[in-house]
Amino acid sequence: MSDVTATRGSDATEAAEAASSSHADTEPTTRMNMIQAINSAMDIMMERDPDVIVMGEDVGYFGGVFRATAGLQAKHGKTRVFDTPITECGIIGVAVGMGAYGLRPVPEIQFADYIYPALDQLVSEAARLRYRSAGEFTSPITVRSPFGGGIFGGQTHSQSPEGLFTHMSGIKTVIPSTPYDAKGLLIAAIEDNDPTLFFEPKRIYNGPFDGYWDRPSQNWSKHPAGAVPTGYYKIELGKAKIVRAGEALTILAYGTMVHVCTAVVAEAGIDAEIIDLRTLVPLDIETIEASVKKTGRCMIVHEATRTSGFGAELSAIVQERCFYHLEAPIERVTGFDTPYPHSLEWAYFPGPVRIGEALKKIMKDA
Amino acid sequence: MTMASEHPRANLQPLTLHIPEPKFRPGDAVDFAEVDVPPAGEARRPDTADKASDFIDLAYTLVRVLDDDGNAVGPWDPKLSPDVMRRMLRSMALLRAFDERMFRAQRQGKTSFYMKALGEEAVAVAAAYALDYEDMCFPSYRQQGLLIARGWSLVDMMNQIYSNTADRLGGKQLPIMYSVKEAGFFSISGNLTTQYPQAVGWAMASAAKGDTRIAATWCGEGSTAEGDFHSALTFATVYRAPVIFNIVNNQWAISSFSGFAGAEATTFAARAVGYGIAGLRVDGNDALAVYAATEWAAERARTNQGPTLIEHFTYRAEGHSTSDDPGQYRSEGEPNAWPLGDPIKRLKDHLIAIGEWDDDRHAAQDKELAEQVKAAQKEAEKNGILGHGLHQPLESLFDGVFEELPWHLKEQRQQMLDEESASGRPWDIKA
Q1: Is A157 a catalytic residue?
Q2: Contact B231/A89, CB-based, under 8 Å?
């Protein structure tokens, strides 16, 4: 199960990735977990651009509760990497002001569950500033935030609120699923001149969790995407990645669920095409459309709650564009419309059982 | 009944909920005798290097310079040259003339919305004179006086109000929600107090970069209740951000009197005390007091003494906006009974008292300013007024959502253009 991406198509995708991303083939790589890759991205951007600053609760001397900013303050100084008061509204509001001055802030919201006090500053300010000022002022900020469950975090350390933000115009949403992607996408997000939410699936910080919570967990050391270039490279926002090429159906996923889907598909022996969306806004519609038209079936998997989740948007888009190619109803596999429970975490989590049942359903008449 | 009788404290008096109520409602005779107005010149002026905790009393009094006889008195007298005071007077009068004209333009159907600053002209104008031109302002929606005092083009402001072809914001924003980076005037948000933490962020960035510019921001007393206000003050005190917080306490937040923001319990300047920030409570209708307080706060900010919170005690003599009718909820006698008078008249009286101005010159100036505004309006209306056809290309509706248009917005833009074709009636009709 460890080499979940070492399936057909994966190597080709990695090679294409290396060719399309902006680092040289000769670039040395090293093994990194996702936290180290994210740390490396910020470190490199702070070296390259004196206007990049990092701030958030506990990110300074301590280096962050998940260690994502470890060592950055010692290296880049306290005026560029610092702790903040516990006010998410303040963190984002201050970042918007810094962006207006000309800085390129990378604020951290410690858990995505804590982002709600910052909603007004994100939605009404950061996301709207370019539009309302006709480009006089912009918000080139990248908000990093660990999200998703599977760590027994209970309802306030497990949520996936991406659907709130994809609904709001003017803000980009990026979700990596590997260390390699996390670094390349974060660098691209920091360089982007629009506000970007960078949700980090914390369950896969240390390894590609495949959803089989009762089995030993893997780390990134053997995973192909755990080999990360030490230098600068970026992965263009808005480009999905075909994690596994296949013919039987298309699975759209992002974050942790990419690895869960890959494992379930391997166990079931189904020739699925698994697409890691990587960026929700802007969405890589071409890759999605081409795949569903090829396979005729589409399953959408996310951990977030179901109603009005991003899966609903994906389902609508696929239906609008691929209706006459569909051979079965689109399947949505999601978390339930409940708060994220503590003890019943695995009953909530859209794991192998739920995905497996959906696979049977969508493949019934194949 | 059983619940009550079984309650272990059933013998206690029942609790009562306090709902604040303003002193005067429509039809009531107004007497502001209870408003405490200390004599001009009474408040002490600490050194700008003093610790905030050493002058907490200034958050509870009223810094006043101009007395009832038109004299500038006390330690806060900024001792401005007559020339600067005449320019300040002129800016305030120009602001009033501009407001009057644009208010009427809205009533004539030339635009959708307008907000006057009647009675509180000194708050923005005097601050603009005390700040450096390069200092960054994060205003609320009633500080158009900043732009006017900074000499910004009236025609340009009117173009924005009309959302016409020359509107620098391309018709994207509600009238008066200006954005003028060139004049150090941040894009106004319709959401309240969001600009407070943004000003702190800008100020922190300036300090982090070793710049010398400072930031200033404004909100109303009503919106000090927003969480952003408290986030901003916390950030500012923690990092000693070079920022000036202005609370324009004009007594009314649409129909809610200041009691609904906590005014029955304490002053708004007192909010500074809990944060360890320098706090001043200032006669907002006294241009010299506003100037002096701002100059003092700017000096503190520029010398790394950190933020200052200034409450400008003033009165909103007009409705909240053209969509509001204050006669529905407050006594019509309030504006005239306001004990701190009219800011323009007070500065004018001072200039006359020191022999640097007279009624004839004032009347002539008012006439001249009215003509200036009228001419600007004529000029602006050449670029169109709201509602008379579309002034911006249809496609521009999608400009600026992102730096580059993603596919889904391109698709929606095409849909819009197709809808126009399908309608058989171009939407870009100059009526």
Answers
A1: yes
A2: yes
- Tracing tokens 């000029």 back to the chain, one arrives at B379
Reduce the DSSP state of residue B85 to 3 states and report it. Answer: helix
Q: Tell me the CA distances in angstroms from A284 to A184, A281, B93, one per residue in order.
A: 17, 8, 56
Q: Which domains does chain B have, with CATH numbers?
A: 52-319+336-381 (3.40.50.970), 394-423 (no CATH)
What does the alpha-carbon distance between residue B305 and residue B246 come to, in Å, rounded to a whole number? 17
CA distance A234 to chain B (A): 18
The residues pairing with B252 across neighbouring beta strands, listed in sequence order, are B257
Q: Which two tokens stand for residue B139?
A: 């205003």
Mean pLDDT calculated for residue range B148-167 = 97
Question: Any idea what the Cα angle at residue B399 is, between residues B393 and B403, rounded to 5°?
Answer: 155
Place of tokens 């899966």: A311
State whether residue A125 sits within 8 Å of chain B by CB.
yes
Residues of chain A contacting residue B134, judged by C-beta atoms under 8 Å apart: none
Interface of A with B in 157-176 (CB under 8 A): 169-170, 172
Q: What is the mean pLDDT of residues A321-340?
A: 98
Quote the CA–CA distance of B110 and B161 in Å, as a whole number.
9
Q: For helices B359-381 and B82-107, what crossing angle results, to 10°?
A: 50
> How do residues A303-329 score in pLDDT, each as one tens digit?
999 999 999 999 999 999 999 999 999
Domains and CATH numbers, chain A: 22-229 (3.40.50.970), 241-362 (3.40.50.920)
A188 neighbourhood in chain B, CB within 8 Å:
none
Residue A154 CB neighbours (<10 A): 15
Asked if the peptide bond before residue A282 counts as cis, ω within 30 degrees of 0, the response is yes
For the segment A100-154, what is each residue's pLDDT rounded down to a tens digit? Answer: 999 999 999 999 999 999 999 999 999 999 999 999 999 999 999 999 999 999 9
Query: What tokens appear for A242 in the block?
Result: 């075909």
Interchain CB distance below 8 Å, A170 and B402? yes
Closest A-chain CA to B135: A101
- Cα A284 to Cα B84: distance, rounded to the nearest angstrom: 60
